[in-house]
Amino acid sequence: MSKSLVKVSKLSAVIALTLGVSACSKIEAESKPVTVDKTIEAKQFIKDAESKMADLSIEINRSEWIYSNFITQDTAALAASVSEKYTAASVELATTSAQFANLPLSDAEKRKLNILRSSIVLPAPLDVVKNAELANISAELNGLYGKGKYCFEDGHCLTQPELSAIMGTSTNPDELLEVWQGWREIAKPMRPLFEREVELANEGAKDLGYADLSELWRSNYDMKPDEFSTELDRLWGQVKPLYDSLHCYVRGELNEQYGDDVAPASGAIPAHLLGNMWAQSWGNIYEQVAPENADPGYDVTELLAKHNFDEIKMVEQAETFFTSLGFEPLPDTFWERSLFVQPEDRDVVCHASAWDLDSRDDIRIKMCIQKTAEDFTVIHHELGHNFYQRAYKDQPFIFKNSANDGFHEAIGDTVALSITPDYLKQIGLLDEVPDASKDIGLLLKQALDKVAFLPFGLMIDQWRWKVFSGEITPEQYNKAWWELREKYQGVKAPIARSEADFDPGAKYHVPGNVPYTRYFLAHILQFQFHQSLCEIAGDNGPVHRCSIYGNKEAGAKLNTMLEMGQSKPWPEALAAVTGTKEMDAKAVLDYFAPLQTWLDEQNSTANRQCGW
Ligand code: X8Z
Ligand code: ZN
């Protein structure tokens, strides 16, 4: 039932296809009194819709917050019941908004109508019984994920973050395999629920005039849905050669370490060896694949421990980054109401999220923080959501969102790209900044996180969109999942899988129904933002060494974009920071250019046959 990982208190999501109608002339309006009446009606409808959704959003946010922080039968039932009411209201508004197409309204009003129509992530059919069924399924799926645990033979059970910690640190292939396989057991019971969820939400999408839920999800990017798909292919094409070089290098190193039986030198890489439960980012295996002479020689997890950073201190340090850019400190209520540490006495949804309960000041995060470098970055990611939410709080309710959903995911990551050695020294964590000869190590660590993520960020919704459109049937869920994993990532399941498994359900965003393409976009956008903000900050050095920490001009520029919320098509928001209206992966390629050269040299020296 969560609509979005950014808990924006409103219909989540984004944008609108332009209606394709220029503002009607006054003459035309005057010659058609019906149109005039209809236009007045439309304006009133928008006002009423905005105030209705604003009111309802507070209720749904509170009920979802309570459910995710205290998973029980009762909180699930209450959350489902509020969600039912909220979805019914959203669907009604979306249906009505379609009636007001082609009227002489302002651009902002047309945009609001389009957002009302296209931003429901899980639309219920008009039928009330089906709406209730969908709300219950959605709550149950979220609960199954949140409560998920794997119990070892000796009887001790671990939660998701605890299992992830093993995936991130162990180099014992047997242990990795057990944890990998064990976690996926939680997803098996999700399969029939997910199948029914898709059926119902597709029906809801059709009721709203879309071909299916895939078309609805792809309608939120200020362009036609198919153009958006093409745009994704273009961006992926730009970065694929870099990914291929990284894949080739990592596979070769893992082969040297584990040998042919565990980590073959050719073909797809077994998914349990990459330092992450989903093989989505590989930074945790940095030590295993690090270059001999170019290692920067520090590890942020160790630095945090050495300097006694607890969970709160990690969040405070991240907040300081944002205030150094000129943003106001977080409100007291953020510190009072957020969840930072996994409670021992109850089930919670540990997957990190940022919330905006009242669309004004009641911003919070919910996260079971581990004291690691990885989570230090995730904290910046989450605070990026909160600072965005606060920056657009004076927009009209329907525009209180990011320019497109990739923007919301990119802000905190952009800031985290500034966690450079210089920055770590400035805040007293690091004693000595490694010299330029260590750049390859720094870049490789970053690439293992960011470049490795790109095909994963893309493939999840490639799978889901095909599921929604019916191209992938329930009998093929798991097989198609692994085909796409192999096609995009060059990663394979470490043991045989079958349709008795439901591996997509072991990834939070599938049971949570959170669209995933946003993260792919964010991984391109954050490099564009970082590059431009570094220019604004007057940093002329290599962009991977640039930190915008403390730079008020960069902060002010970023804020101009954040303040716009969703009020303008995303290319305009992008231009506010970067001066360009195009998403472009060239910034990724520029950032990693020295690494790409180095990887290609390594691969060719070792005579590796790249590809899979
Ligand atoms: O879900 C998230 C954030 C919350 S919006 C922690 N991310 C994706 C994931 O964990 O799968 C951030 C990167 C990708
Ligand atoms: Zn996020």
TrEMBL record:
- Positions bound to Zn(2+) 1: H381, H385, E409
A GO MF label: carboxypeptidase activity
Task: Kindly indicate where the leader peptide sits in this chain.
Answer: 1-23
Name of a matching Pfam family: Peptidase_M2
User: Which residues does UniProt mark as catalytic?
Assistant: E382 (proton acceptor 1), E382 (proton acceptor 2), H509 (proton donor 2), H509 (proton donor 1)
Task: Please name every pair of cysteines joined by a disulfide bond in this record.
Answer: C151-C157, C350-C368, C534-C546
Task: Enumerate the residues binding Zn(2+) 2.
Answer: H381, H385, E409
Return the InterPro entries for the record.
Peptidase_M2 (IPR001548)
Give the enzyme's main class according to its UniProt record, as a single word. hydrolase
Q: Does the keyword Secreted apply?
A: no
| Residues annotated for chloride binding in this entry | Y221, R518
What is the protein's given name?
Answer: Peptidyl-dipeptidase A
- Organism of this sequence: Shewanella pealeana (strain ATCC 700345 / ANG-SQ1)
